[in-house]
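INFO worker-7 received task bundle
INFO bundle size: 2
INFO processing item 0
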Amino acid sequence: MLRALLTLLALVIVASALAAGAARTTAPTTTAPTTTAPTDAPSTTAPATTTPATTAPATTAPATTAPATTAPTTRAGTTLAPVDAWAPPSGAAFATVSAGALDGFHAAWCAATPVRPLVVVQLGDSHTAGGFMTTALRRALAPEQPSGPGYVPPSSLTTQWATSTLRGRWTQASWLRDRGDVSGAMAGPGGQIAVPPSRGPATAELRLGPPPATTTATTATTATPMPPSTASDAPILPEGGRVTVLHDPFTPVPDGALRIDGVVTEPWERAGTALLGRTTVSVPPGTTTVSLDVAGEPFRFYGWVVLDPTARVELDAVGVSGVTVMQSGRRADASLDEYLAWRQPDLVVVWLGTNDAVTPADEFRRFDDAYPRWLDRVRAAAPQAALVAVGPPDLDRRPAGCAAPVGRGRRRRGGLSREELVAVVCRPQAIPVTANRAPIALKGVRTAADWGRWLSSCAHETAPTLAHVIDVERAAVTARGGAFVDLFAWMGGPLSMKRLACLEPPLAALDLVHLKADGYALVGAAVADALTGGVPCPAAPPPTTAPTTPTTTPAATTNP
């Protein structure tokens, strides 16, 4: 009897299992609708993700073979389609040029020689300090010819033409990050200062390496090859050149402190102004390092200037990361004015405004007056220079109060992986939800309902003050006889930074503030396009040729 009951119970279980399997194969769209997408996601933002029948169908797996509870087995974002391509437009089409604003620049550019090179100084924030845009601008203004690295801050990125490294326990400060023991009234023309320790070794080493490695800015529709660079250990001054140390004039470079490739050398030129000291040495061909040893000296170091005597273009990138126009005008000391007077640039490019667009309201209200005053100061320091302002690029942010995704980085644990960060920034609506919890770990976003609310209310938007910044800059520079390059419009307007960040490969960073190296290269080419306007230099007159027919000697020239 017991055996019969057990047999009957087994048959019932098998029959139930078979019935459940038949139900799954005949009605796949009825399984767990609330586990594939947040139920309260509004149709205006994600109409295709509110029902399981339309969420990531065959792009992840066939519906008949992958039930919703097992649907994506990879990390978020790996199966999402890339954003469509973007092709850079002409930079000249987005330039507003006052009458005659660039005539002097064109004349200097066309007549530039190694004896009298074109000198350009670019003032800006992190977009300038990174150096990628200015590297491309150098190449565009002097293709297939050398161009001087120009200004190098006390400690710089390792991706540029010439790099500076501080060895020892130097103290550093800038316009933004004051250190009361070193800053005071002078911060140097680049907004930075470095002071060696009173004890222990202290060396500033300038490495004269090659330009950045060959890169190609590529999207699905455009490819912009960069000129090839030399070997990684090759110098950038194959015929020698000049290196100038910028410093406080009251603390000169000590005798014997400069070394060229390890050999002590004496300065051949000491000069300067009231607030800017300059000590210059000649470097022989093939020089790879210039060292400044100032251990225990009361020295204030502002950076280097590297000049190539064979260059047709010298471009100084003077940028302070995070700086605003208000900070530049209020805290930059007169050493910047004296630097411009020394360099006598043919062109000054001002690329500021990104950080101003996200300043507190009370400070932002001062921008309208601060920006024209800054241009007046630049014009007074370099009256001979053409003046060009580059507007800020697009700047995309989430509304206030929204949790922003953060990458893991070197010092952060628990952040999103690169893959997850791309997905949540570029295509959050397509991230499948496989349980009643948020698919991405964000602060305050835990459940599927939280995720739905975040999707509907935390979409990216262009900084609302950006348009005002651009209008003020355009009006101010054109009123002063300069030119304005509307980089925001060139990129494509609102949310274009996000679009460039979501390209494959990306042209912008996922912080939606900065560009990638290839993106900055395209900006440099666009600014050069706007500066030159597609107008070639006037051709030299054709050489005079001797007449092919003999001339008759006038009778008056014969002897009587």
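INFO item 0 finished
INFO processing item 1
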Amino acid sequence: MPLKIRNKLLLGFSIMLAPLLLLLSINYYNYGSVFKNIRRAEEIRKGIHHLSQLQLAFDMVIMPANDYLITADAAEKKEFDRLTGEIDSLIATLSAKKEADSGETRMLGEIREGSEGIKKAAQEIFKIKKPIGSRSGAKLMEGMDVLSHRVTTGPLAGLRETVEREQEERHRGVEAAMGRAWAINAAGSLVMIALGVLVTFLYSNLFLMRPMRAIRRRTEEIAKGDLRAKPGLKTGDEFEELSDAINSMASEIDSLHAHLEELVEERTKKMNEALKDAEDSAGRYKTLVEASPDSVSVSSEGKIVFINKAGAFLLGANNPGELVGKEAIDFVHPDYMEIERERTMRIMKGEREPGLLEERIRRMDGKEIYIDGISVLTVYNDKPAILSIARDVTYRKEARDAVRKERDKFITIFDAMEDGVYMVNQDYDIEYVNPALKREFGPVEGRKCYEYLHDRKEVCPFCPNKEVWAGRTVRWEWYSPKSGKTYGITDTPVKNPGGNVSKMEIMRDVTDSKRSGKELKERLEELELFRKTTIKREIRLRELKEKVKALEKKLEEKRTQPPQ
């Protein structure tokens, strides 16, 4: 059967193709300008994003040095190195997109100089051995604050303003190009519409409307339930095939109608069963949440919309109803307010939390406590919400702080001892060295204990660490070629708060006592040899005296005998 409808459509399409191609070519040129401006605007947007990251990095880069002055934790230097590396990477990324002689390059240079100044000041801070209460460290910290503020409010703010101004210009270019595109499309559309209306009117009157009316009447009859077979159209084209297909469909619908009722009944039964299972699961979940010893809460649009009994107790409320509708941020301690806002923004973007977060909160009664919590994005009443699980860790934190204070007391004692003291973990990393031992062997500088004390590249074969980590106290002596001294050593296991075991070694210089003991032993040996020699000589003298007496006796006897 010839495809007459298709041929007519091809004819009408051919008539409309020429102006369509002309319209497309004009649009292609115009949209090229649009896309060029859009690509540049996207590059500028990325630049603004990098500037935002740079702003955040400069806001945070002074914190590790400040924390080091407060806690003396050497790990803060690693955080500082990470932030300065991020700043250098962002400056390099922004510099790669700027012209060599532009004002933006000058501002980037000023930002780079500010970063280098912060690095130098921070390095001086991290060189301070006892940073807590250090006046020089505080002075350096003030300089870092001033330098960071100068960079963020000066060249960084100026660079951001320049980039945003360029972005506005690109947006205006895009809007102008889009306006031209709309005008071109409007004119072209009018032409296309006129041709389309003309072709459609002629084609529909000649070849479409009559068979379509017949098919419509047949489909209305089928919709009303008349599924009896009837004569189809005789047009010699696709409408005839469609009419035959409709009649065939009506017959199949009639045969499938009864089967469909059976399927609907079966599916309804299964859906009711599934709904009952879902209600049971929801009930079990609610019971589990209510019985949980941890606080479980849901906040939507910043307000608490659900909280279990454990959560109400945690926040100092008599029942969950007192907390529903309150602002969740009101319970956060002011010191953690900004951290909580940033955390909420990340969660709402779909980012996953890396793990438990320790946070300080204020209960309804004003009492301040510490919690460990984790939050995830969820949906509550068809709205995005945050599901949070938390538990009170105030006692654990207080215990940890108490252990830290006791450890600081012991370190103060060790620092005042004349004997050398150091601590080492099970990876042979030195955790502490007192001043007396540093005077003998110098600074540790990240070396393992066998490198620091013995100048070895591997674990010492005579090392008693395994016995110490098994819980035994070991006493032994060791001669150090490095210091030329002999030490009496006591190795004792020390259990850390985390449960792992470190070794504490006390080294006492016994060189003089060893030397005195050796000299005493040599004198005793000499005296013993003299004693033995003297005794032998006395015995020999006695033997000689007895022989002399015997000879004198024999001579006397010979004198007294009468002559023969």
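INFO item 1 finished
INFO post-check item 1: The chain has a mean pLDDT of 76.
INFO post-check item 1: The two ends are 184 Å apart (CA to CA).
INFO worker-7 idle
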